[in-house]
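Worked Example 4.2. Consider the chain below.
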Amino acid sequence: MPGGKLSGDDLKELTIHGVDTKAIQEYRQLAADLGENDLRLDEIVEMKIHDIHIDYAKALAKSGFKDLTMQDILNAKIHEVDPDYIKQVNAMGYPGLSFDDLLTFKIHDISPEYIQSLKQAGINDLSADELVNMSIHDVTPETIAEFKKMGYSDMSNDDIINFSIHEVDADFLAEMRREGFTDLSTDELVNLKIHEVDPGYLAEMRKAGLTDLSNDDIVNLRIHEVDADYILGMRKAGFSDFSTDDVINLKIHDVDADFVGQMYKSGLKDLSIDDIVNCAIHDVNPEQIKGFQQIGFKDIDIDDAVNLQIHDVTPEFIQSMRKKGFKDLDLDGYIELKIRSEE
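Applying the procedure from the previous section yields the following structure tokens:
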């Protein structure tokens, strides 16, 4: 309503919120001072609801915020950013904050008392963003004291925030220490918590035969969703001695116990974990191997099977070449034929 007539509904809305002619004139004057001449009805009503006056805007300007918009002033009033709060925050070591920073401080309940309590707990020189993160994640002097009791007295601000974000507490640390994980760094503890490594999972891995696991080992096993059933399945399929890297490699390539069993039944001998992984990578399967055996290649080995698959040499291709007169070639010979046929 820059200056037009008010409708009956407009007047009703203004009356409900106690907006009189004097208030309208005051808000128009404030808007004009801010260079905003198109003041809407809903803005006038909101200004009245939050009891905003020209004196409040002037006080903010005197506190260093002269270029605020009408919406800025409204937001400041809603979140109780006033000259006293600005002065207190300045005195606590945060002078010259932007208006948005001050709003963020207020929204996240950062009070001078909170800033002082962190300083007394030994947390100094926090940036505005760090302070906000501390508040968002409920970092208090009590939580800092708990971290120190856990043996982490020289933590960075990021460490403190990460402990709080991921709920690393004394109970979790005690559990890990009982399981043999001692002298863990802050990053290692957080990593364990992020990936939900707990005593139950550690016991499961040990029951499956994986002992003497490092922090990295257990985290990697967890990341790749290796469980006891998977490990026991691999053992039953024929792998009795393998490292955590072996297990992870098998899992990454979706090798299961059924696939391993089928590969052994295909007649391939002395298969290593790397052999099985290569088969999985190159889509070598028992049916293909059987197909080559049925056309005379009884002694096909794993390297043959992988090379044939890489070059897309099938039993059908070999049979077709035999019909063309190429009857006495070995597998390498048929691979060479395939390569030449594609040149």
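The chain has a mean pLDDT of 89. The chain is about 60% helix and 0% strand. Compare this with Example 4.1 before moving on.
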